[in-house]
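Schema walkthrough. Field components (list of strings):
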Amino acid sequence: MAVPKVLLIVGGGVAAYKALELVRLMRKDGMEVRAILTEGGSHFVTPLSLASLTENPVGGDLFDLTAEQEMGHIVQSRWADLIVVAPATADLMAKAANGLANDLASTTLLATDTPVLMAPAMNVRMWTHPATQRNLAQLKADGVAFVGPDEGEMACGEFGEGRLAEPPVILNAIRARIGRDDSLKGRHILITAGPTEEPLDPVRFLSNRSSGKQGYAIASALERRGATVTLISGPTALPAPAGVTRVQIGTAEEMLAACKAALPAQVAIMTAAVADWRPAEAAPEKLKDKATRTTIELVANPDILAQLAKDGPDRPALVIGFAAETEKLIEHARGKLAKKGCDWIVANDVGGTGVMGGDANTVTLIDADGEEAWPRLSKAEVAERLAERIAKTLG
Ligand code: C5P
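Field assembly_structure (string):
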């Protein structure tokens, strides 16, 4: 798949500062980004910040001689796979809904047939005003997609609907709209992600540092290839990827039950960092600070990967495990391939490089035929490669 290209239009609102975070997330996700900053937007963020983060010149002026010699507003919108307006102010929405074209941003929006995604942000009264709601309905009828706004406390001190959707949520909405194909259409794929939490009592639990980022990125990459994706997730801070069915669980036993309930599936990918052990019993009341007991008795959790990989009518055609190792990576991972009975193991070295919770991963894919060492990639790129390999294997 080619590198996704996004043209970001930043409107003039307090939330414009969040557009910088959005650019950072898009770049990390492997997208190429160009930006247009409206006059209003330039009062909140500088062209230099946007240019530095996008690593591209920033458009601002419709009558910029150099840019418009090449018809900048037309070229930019043709270049992009998607135009994102964030924050989409009441003014930008009104212009776009009525076909006004009196600055670079509005002219670009009028001069394009590239899909547009708007993330509105404005005061709650402006948002609920009949004029804005009319413009919203018109833009939707014109085929513009929307993400947010959220409800919450606003910069102006009021509370209500009108907050810019959080950048990770906007990123998901962007991902869902670009780089799509049908290579996994009709396939149901089951993914586990994140940590599990094994309770000691109602307020304490045993868990681990898994962020869920790799599993979520894989879920998104598969969904964009047309797969029906069920993501069984332990507690994470991540929003559900667009178009994916997320089932949230706490313990390993709940994860196993949710996996079984989601079968049949053609592919199962187990990225979750499942706790191998759980406290033998979870106290019904909070354990007392001065308790004399200083040891925790543990019992083994079910191995979800091994259970799904067992032969049987419901066994997915392709079962993929992950192996996080800190030493003898390949040897240990190959051992797991055999022990668990899965078809592929994605081995990653988590020794001291900040892989857990981080954004990059260096993995080796191991199957019965051999090994494939991948270079250090972002987790999003690992997800893309894995999704492509799965699509090729299923044929
Ligand atoms: O044995 P280890 O925990 O290193 O195995 C890692 C692989 O097994 C991962 O794919 C993980 O999701 C899966 N696993 C599991 N259930 C467990 C333990 C691990 O599905 N109880």
